[in-house]
Structure formats: structure tokens, C-alpha cells
From TrEMBL, chain A:
<feature type="domain" description="ABC transmembrane type-1">
    <location>
        <begin position="82"/>
        <end position="282"/>
    </location>
</feature>
<feature type="transmembrane region" description="Helical">
    <location>
        <begin position="121"/>
        <end position="143"/>
    </location>
</feature>
<dbReference type="GO" id="GO:0055085">
    <property type="term" value="P:transmembrane transport"/>
</dbReference>
<dbReference type="Pfam" id="PF12911">
    <property type="entry name" value="OppC_N"/>
</dbReference>
<dbReference type="GO" id="GO:0005886">
    <property type="term" value="C:plasma membrane"/>
</dbReference>
<keyword id="KW-0472">Membrane</keyword>
<comment type="similarity">
    <text>Belongs to the binding-protein-dependent transport system permease family.</text>
</comment>
<dbReference type="GO" id="GO:0015031">
    <property type="term" value="P:protein transport"/>
</dbReference>
<feature type="transmembrane region" description="Helical">
    <location>
        <begin position="21"/>
        <end position="45"/>
    </location>
</feature>
From TrEMBL, chain C:
<dbReference type="InterPro" id="IPR035906">
    <property type="entry name" value="MetI-like_sf"/>
</dbReference>
<protein>
    <submittedName>
        <fullName>ABC transporter permease</fullName>
    </submittedName>
</protein>
<dbReference type="Pfam" id="PF19300">
    <property type="entry name" value="BPD_transp_1_N"/>
</dbReference>
<keyword id="KW-0472">Membrane</keyword>
<feature type="transmembrane region" description="Helical">
    <location>
        <begin position="136"/>
        <end position="163"/>
    </location>
</feature>
<feature type="transmembrane region" description="Helical">
    <location>
        <begin position="12"/>
        <end position="30"/>
    </location>
</feature>
<dbReference type="InterPro" id="IPR045621">
    <property type="entry name" value="BPD_transp_1_N"/>
</dbReference>
<keyword id="KW-1003">Cell membrane</keyword>
<feature type="transmembrane region" description="Helical">
    <location>
        <begin position="283"/>
        <end position="306"/>
    </location>
</feature>
Amino acid sequence: MISPRSRRILRRFVGHWPGMASAVVLALLCLTALFAPQILTILGLDPFATDLFLLKAPPGPGHPLGTDEAGRDVLARLILASRASLTVGLTTALAASAIGTLIGLWAGYFGGRVDSILMRLTDGAIALPLLPLLIVLSAIDYAKVGLDGLNEGSGLARMVLILSLFAWTTVARLVRAETMSLKTRDFVVAATALGATPGRVLRRHILPNVLGAVIVATTLAIGNVILLESVLSFLGLGLSPPTPSWGGMLTNAQNTLWDRPELALWPGLAIFLTVIAFNFLGDGLRNALAARENPAAGR
Amino acid sequence: MIRPVAAALAGAFALLFFVALSAPQAEAADKRRLTIGISQYPSTLHPSFDSMMAKSYIAGMARRRITTYSPEWLEICQLCTELPSLEKNTAAYETTPDGKPGMAVTYTLKPDAVWADGVPITTRDIAFTVEVGKNPETGIDNAELYSRIDSVDILDDKSFTLHLNKRTCDYSGLAGFDILPAHIERPIFEQGASEYRHRSAYDTDPTQPGLWHGPYRVARVTPGQSILLERNPNWWGARPYFDEILVRAIENTAALTANLLSGDIDMIAGEVGIPVDQALSFEAKHGADFKAVYRPGLFYEHIDLNLDNPILQDSRVRLALLTAIDRDAISQRLFKGVQPVAHGNVNPLDVRYDATAPRVAYNPDRAAALLDEAGWRMGGNGIREKDGQPLTLTIQTTAGNTTRELVEQVLQNQWRAVGVDIRIENEPARVLFGETISKRKFTGLAMFAWLSAPESIPRTTLHSSQIPTAENAWIGQNYTGYANPEMDRIIDDLETECAETDQARLWSRLQHLYAEDLPVLPLYFRSDPFLMPKNLTGVRPTGHQYPSTLWVEEWRLND
Amino acid sequence: MLSYIARRLGGGLIVLLIVTFLGYALIGLMPGDPIDQMLAGNPDLTPQDVLRLKAIHGLDQPLLDRYWAWLSSALNGDFGYSRLYRQPVGEILIPRLGASLLLLGTALILSLCIAVPLGIVAAARANGPLDYLVNLICYAGISVPPFWLSLMLIALLAVPIAWIPAGGMGDPDLSMWQRLPYMLLPVTALTLSAVGGFTRFLRGAMLEVLSEDFMRTAKAKGAGPYRRFVGHALRNALLPLITLIALSFGSLFSGTLIIETIFGWNGMGRMIFEATMGNDFNLALVALIVTTGFTLIANILADVVYAMLDPRIRLDGAAGDDGGSAT
């Protein structure tokens, strides 16, 4: 069922304990996000109910982590916020990787004018100052350019679209370089000589070999996107209330920084732990998927 | 090859920390200096371009207005000797050259008023300022004021008469008139009016003493950072206590309070400082070390209702919306009582305030009854319905304004409790004000603030001629689309029937009508939080658009 | 080689042109204008004034016409006045560029000073406890939201310690040495968030070099660890790191926005943000050209240097006139 190679990779991954621990943490987190409404029902907490007579309350019965500046339960909001933060992180990173992989494969394999144009495009996208453009894009009136749907709701779809427009370049460069180098390898040359179509060569020989690098890059990108979401919130361009996100909670906590610094602590910690876990996960994956054994590893 | 480089880097690193540790305090100890933190840096120091509070605040120390409103909200003279009045014949009705009703008002400038370079402030400067203001190529902000001035008669060095092409009851004020120094600016202006806004000495050489005439003059400008003011030796009024005032701009308000704690700034200005909830949080922890003063002011936080929306056209629904929200609790709990509930558009501190105007109290049962009466029956999911349509409305406010977003979510909860479903769709300020509100694109509720002057007639917001449409190029601020012939008549009369009894009657009727028609849901009047050293006295927060710095010479430290 | 660089520069100019157009269009597509906001904050202003002011700033003209007018005067060397700061664009840009370079340069040098030893240790003890510890430190730095880190630094360092300023750049007549205290916190924040990436990258690059055949040979020949790690591995691993920094130059400038805002440092990041949000086309576009230009040049340099070092990469292929055959 499981190929020896996969088994080897799995064994190596499990052996890398920071990566393994992160994977467990992130799996729990994803489950929390997935079942957030059910968890909140079981705990009997409401993330939206404001209570003007219980503002900024310390932890106590009924409110395990206390309440925020509107009297809402902090724990409930933290749990629900994992949804927005993870959704933005995962979808953006996946979309960006898909775009980046396609462009990178094409550019690296076929070269020529296509490569040249695609790479100039990448140059352009890398060179553009990211933050101001993100800001401009979040303020644009999408109805004007015929994308009515993007103006609606909490802005989640808009944020994902905008962030992916920028995140694909890293993956594209990576895949292109790998493809160019794989293209000259014997097994690819042989397959081409035997009459395999470019599509088949790309699918059967090149894609499986770049996938490892793509997975690692995607994992790292998720962390970056979650951080970016918090920055956008800080600049007032985050998700629309009442949808909670960690970045938004952190930004609001600035107003209560002096009398209730804990309100900044929890979302800050959530972002920190999630991003660090994604980084370690990427590390573990890289370690497990590495084509050759690290010479220094066995010492 | 690597080793020496690494060593050098390590050395530089060590040195950096050593120097940082032993850095001397760059503070001149012998000078009395007050450092004020504000949250915005003015784009220009020229008084007629880009009006913004940060500039008014700084200009308050280095310039004076001809007339202004005192901290007690009374109109007073600052550069003039006496307010013109019809009784004293310093104001008179007349007919304009083209036969329309006009007015002539006469002012006399203070005899000892001089620019900081010693040149007297005279009617030459008045004539020049009017010329700049009336030239359409200059591009100043409030050209409206100057278009009302038909001509100026220079009577002598200090006295002048303005001929106005409009009769109003508030003729005595000249607060928006920013006098310019003709001896410096005229040669620049004469090189070309359209280029003047780039070439003015206020931008190219702002430390020239002749540009200023307040107790202080601008001594140093560090763009984007700070403005240093030093005592003006030619100031004709009381000698100010501080030798220097440094105004520092720190945009992030959390960082602004941290700077106050660390001693980098001595106080935070109320006018351009921090939001009130941040100030309350700061005071809760560090209130013992600072003096916190909250001054409710003319920033009127409210919700505009789009009256084109069929749901909102029903006055019972509007009243229900207001009855369903507990503004007292919001004021008392969220803002610890420092931001008073607004029951109408006129501030209780205004002389025109009428306490007998109807007030709406929090009563969710009454709100429910009103909605039932209007045909909105409670549906199965807790949301009311009529003819199969759910009672859903959209509220919009400025994204990133945490205080408004907080209040918005509390309101959403309270409305939800009576079965009204409110969707939040916030937008960045420039989008909201530039497009959504000003072109009446909001479909339901829009939450924002108006700043009005004391006794200002709400023509642009309530008169039916001021509803923005594509035909009138979106002119007007009557965003709700409110049209009531009686309100139009009251506003027209307020501008022309100047007898005190008429004014009192009209203002009272206006407030009653506003409360009955409810084109707008009043929320609260915003407060300016002043965080100051405990021993600083003499700061008199005004609460209106004329900042406390206009009386900066009264500020001092008690030992 | 020279013709390749010339071609790349030509391509760069085209990219630059496209970037300016995109920038102009994007800012223009943002609804509203700061003039509209003035209306709500100033009771003396009337809507008529707003229309008049917009006409003065040319905002009533079609976007394409405005871009064309801007481009033709920019090509003649006239970048116009900044609308926000009412000064010629260059007079605002240059001091800010200097301030940004001072901050970024110091932070970069400091980050490298920390990242290099950490990277060596991590590579030398790869997958050992020490490596994990370095990893943890690195990831901790990367994973903290920058504004949170900055506010914590102020609250924990500037508030209790008198000589550390919480923000600002100090008086303009300060000497370099006197300015150091003001640089302490922003440089620390930037360094903490940059060190992790550099260390990780260096570790990976060093491991790559260490696995090369010539390193095994060196070890077999009895070269000491210092010689192997620092003399060979580091020297070969530093180059890609420098390239990485060069490549991300543009985003480094704008990425300091948060730190500049919180610490009140007047650099390019804040200026680009303010110019963009303030519809200050002249200033925003020149800033865009500067940062994009920096990145493009760094990009070209990186490709050239790589090609010189790695004979497997042929520049002609990358330039796109080789037909790109698979063999």
C-alpha cells in the first residue's frame, strides 16, 4: 500500500520531533477551527454576545479567560478567530502555490519567450512594494471593475485573493529553478528521447520531484500570511467586525494596553504559536523530503 | 579574510551598545520646555491650505484669529478690539452694487499687534489676505468666506470695513479669516497666484519670524517629526511661562501613550490626541501620575439613516431603532460617563440648546411594540419579517476606528435583541466619506461624526436643497435625504430673523422637529481626553474647533 | 555579457514603466480622496469648496490623461510637487531615503553579525539540540507580529529605562552618535524579525556546501573545523545570502512601515504609505520607481553574479532568445 519511499519519508518526519510536535499542535488547531461552533456550544460560550456590565473582566467562572472591551468572552473569540486566521492562511498559501507551480513549471520547462515574459512578470511582482499595494487593493471599489462579490461580507474572499496575487512569486521562482535543473537530468532526457510528450514528462517526472520543495514553501507561506493578516488588521484593513480574527483582536487590544495587557497577550500568543508551528512543520517536511541525506546529520 | 571582517563587525556592535549606554541626555536643562505629543503631523503650516486640527493646534500658539470662540463658547475678539454690532453702528445693512441685500461690518485691529519681526499688523495685511482669498487660482480651502466679501474699505492703519453680499445673524464673527503677512507673502503671491501654494514662505521658510504673531513663533521644523516653538519677544500679550514648546507627532496612539509614560513627551493634546477609551485605559493604570481632563465637545457621533430605504421611511421603525439601544449604558459603561449621550444635534454646552426637546429612553419592550405596530412580526429565527422579507439593515462606519467598531458591535447586539438583523460593512475612511456617504450609496445606516461650530445653523445637513444628487454634482451633506418644508423654513428664518426672541424660538422648534422626525439617530458627543502633568495649570479645553492653544500664554507649572 | 546586461536593463525599464502605470491606476481606482474627509472635519468648508479643490489638483480629469501628463513631465525630469507635503518631490524623498538606509543598513549589519555565528553553529551541529535551540530562537523572531513586538519593546524597555527614547529621531542637529539611542529600539525590532530568516537561510546554504565533494576532500585531507566551516562553507554560503537580501530590497523599504509608524521614524515605508493613502500621485510614483528600481538592479546583479559562479546557468537562455531547447 505504502511505497517504501513514502514509508522512509514518514519515518524521517516522525523522527524530527519539533516538526512532529508542530504537526500535532496544528492538527489540534485545525480541528478546533473546523468544529469551533460545536466546541463553543459544548463550552456554553458566545463569541458575539456583548455585556456592558462585564467589560474587561478578569478570568472567572463563565469566562475562563475573562472578557474583552465589549464584554465578550475572550476564549470564545480566540476559538472562533482560529477559523478566519487559518482559512486566510491555508487558502492563500494553497492558491499561491498552485499558481506559482504552474507558472514555474511552464517557464522552467519550455523556456524561451514564455519564460522571459513570465519571469519579468515575477520580477515586477517581487519588486512592487508589497504593503502599500495590499492597502490600495483592499481599498479599491471592486464594483467598478465588475467584481461585485468582493465588496460583500467580512472581506475574507477579498483578502485571500489579494494576498495570493503576491505570494505566488516565491514558489514560481523556486519551481522554475528546480525544473530547469531537472530538465537536464538523465531520466528526463531519456523520457523525452523515448517520445514522451512534454505534458507527460512534466506530470510524471518533473512535478513529483519539485513537489517536496513546493510543500515546504507552502507550509512556510501559511505562517507568513497569518502574520500579514495581523498587519493588515493593524492598519485598519483587516476583516470586518464582528468576525473575529487574531490580528483584529490584537489590534483592538491596543486600546486596553495599559489596564488589561492580557487582552493583547492571548491573540499574540495564538499567532506566535501557530506561525512558529508552521515553520517547524516546514522544517520537518524539508528534512523528511530532502533528496539526499544530510552529511552532517549522522554525526 | 573573513576573520578580520567578523572582528570589525563585532567591534562595531560592541561600540554601538557602549555609546548607547553612555549617551548624554540631549536636554537643555536651563530652559523651561514643554513637550506635547499629537497624533497627526500637519501637511503645511500655511493657515489657508489643508485645514486640519494638527495645524490649528500648532497655529494656536503662533497665530491668533481676528475673532474666535472662548472656552466658554462665547464669541470674542482676539486680534480685534471689539465685535461689530448693529447697535453700535459698527455693522449696518446696505445694498450691494448689484442691488442685493448686503452688510457692512467694521473691525479695528489691536493697536499693539505686531508680527514677530516687529512689523505692525495692519490693514495692509487684511487687504492682502482678501486678495489671496478671492483669487480663484490660489486654491485655498474655505473660499466661501471670501466670496461673501465683496470689497474691503481701508479706513486707516488699523480699521477696515468689509462689505458682505449676504445678510446673516452671525455677521460679527470672522473666525475663518486667517490674516497673512503682506510684507513677506505679497512679493511671492505676485509672482503667480497658481504657484503661490507651493512657494509660500510658510512652506519654504517657515521659521521666518514675520510669519507669526502669537506668544510663540516657529523656531524649527523637522518635517514629519516635530515643530519647535520659542517665545516671541514681540508678543504684545501676557508673557508665557514656558521658554519653548516642542510639539511631536506620533501617529500610533498606543505608542503615543507609551511616550508619555517614558517621559519623552510631557502631555498629550486632547484635540489631536488619543481616543477616549485608550485614555480611560491609561488613566485606570497610571491616573495617579497624570492629570486627565475630558472635555465633551462638538464632535457629534450619530447614525445617518438613508430615508430612501422603504424600511427606514417608516418613522415607527426609526423610533424603534433608537428606543432599542441603551445609549446611557454605552456612555456610562464603555466611556465611564465622559462622553455624554446626545439627544439631538445641538450640544448641551451650546447657548442654543433646548433641554425641553423630546428625549428617547432605552426601552426594548416599546421598541418591540413599535416594530409590531409597523408590521414587522417576530420570525422563527429571532429576526422580524414583513411580507416574507426579513428586517435586515446594513450599518457602515470607518474601518480601523476601533472605538466606532466597538460601539457598532454593541448596537448590533442590542438591535438583534429586538429582532433587527444588522449587517456590518465597514470601509476605510476615504472610501466611506469620498464615495459611500457623500454619494448616498449606503443603503441603511452610516455611523460617523460631524464637527460643527457653536451656534452653527445645520443648513448643509438638514435643508432639503442640500440632498446630494448626481444632478447637483453631489453637493450638500444632507445624506439622509431628509426633506421637511418646516425644517427648511426654520433654517431659512434662522439666517435672517436675528432678534433674540426669534432665534430662541426657531432653535427650540428645530430641536423638537429633529427629535420627532429622527432623520438621524443621535449617539453621543465625543470627548477630547487631555493627559497632562499634574502640576500644569491654565490649560482650558474648549471642546470646539478652536483649540486650547489659543490661550497658551496662561499655561504654567505650579511648584 | 555586456549585451545581456544591456538587454536586462532595457527589460527593467519596461517593467518600471508598467509598474508606474499600475501604481497610478491603482491609486486612481481607490474611491474617494482626502479632500472629501476634510469636509467632515471642518465646519467652514462647503461642498462647493471640495469640487473647486479637486479641480485644482486635477482630480476631475480622466485617469489616463492624468497619467499621460505625469509621464511626459516625469520624462522631462520634472517630478512635480508633493501634494501632501507641498514641497518638490525630491526634497522630501532624499532625507527619507537616507533615514531608511540608516535604519535598514544598521539592522542588516547587526542581523548578519548575529545570523552568521548562529548559522555556523546550527550547521555544524545540524539536527542536534543546539541546532533546535537556534531554530527556536530564529522562528520566535519570525513569528511575532511586528507591531506587537514593537509595542512590547516600548513597554518593557523604553518606559522603565530613562535614556531609551520611546520613539522619534531626535533633534535634527544631533550627531550620528547622539542619534544612536533613538535607533536602538527600531533597530532591535527590525533585527529580531530579520535574524531568523537569515540564520535559517545560511544554515541551509552551509549544509548544501558541506555536502559537496570538495568539502569531503578537505575533511579527508585533515582540514580543521574552523577552516572547513568558516573558510570554505561560510564563504560559499554568504553569497546566496547577500543575493537574497539584494532581491528583497524593495520590500525591505516598504516592510519597515509598521516599525517606522510605531517608533515615529521618518523613513520611506511611512512615506510610501501616506503618499498612497493621501492620493499624492507624484510622491507615491517616484517612491515606487526608486524601490522598484533598486530591486530590479539588485535582481540583475544577482543573476549576473550567479552566472559567473555557476557555469551550468547560461545567461542567454535566461534572456529568452535561445529558443529554450530541452537539451
